[in-house]
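hey
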C-alpha cells in the first residue's frame, strides 16, 4: 500500500496480459509491484467457446523475485 496508515485501496496498472501457449496460464505485467498483505485481482474474460468467465482471486505477496520478461516466465527445466 502506498500509504500504509490510510484505510483504502491502491489500484495498480496491468500493462499487458498474455496467454501461455497451453492456454491455461495468463501472465500479467504489473510494473512497480510491491509486497502486499491483501490483493484482489478481478477478471472478466471470454473462453475459447465465447462463454464469459468472471471471478476474483485473493492473494498475498510476501516477497518478489527478480523481474520477469513481459513474454512470461521462462520454461521449467525439462519441460522443453
Amino acid at each position: 500500500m502506498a500509504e500504509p496508515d490510510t484505510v483504502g485501496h491502491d489500484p495498480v496498472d496491468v500493462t499487458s496480459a498474455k496467454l501461455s501457449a497451453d492456454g491455461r496460464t495468463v501472465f500479467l505485467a504489473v510494473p512497480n509491484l510491491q509486497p502486499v498483505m491483501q490483493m484482489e485481482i478481478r477478471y472478466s474474460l471470454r473462453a475459447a467457446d465465447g462463454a464469459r468467465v468472471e471471478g476474483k482471486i485473493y492473494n498475498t505477496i510476501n516477497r518478489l523475485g527478480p523481474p520477469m520478461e513481459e513474454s512470461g516466465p521462462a520454461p521449467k527445466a525439462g519441460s522443453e
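The two ends are 38 Å apart (CA to CA). The CA atoms of residues 73 and 79 lie 13 Å apart.
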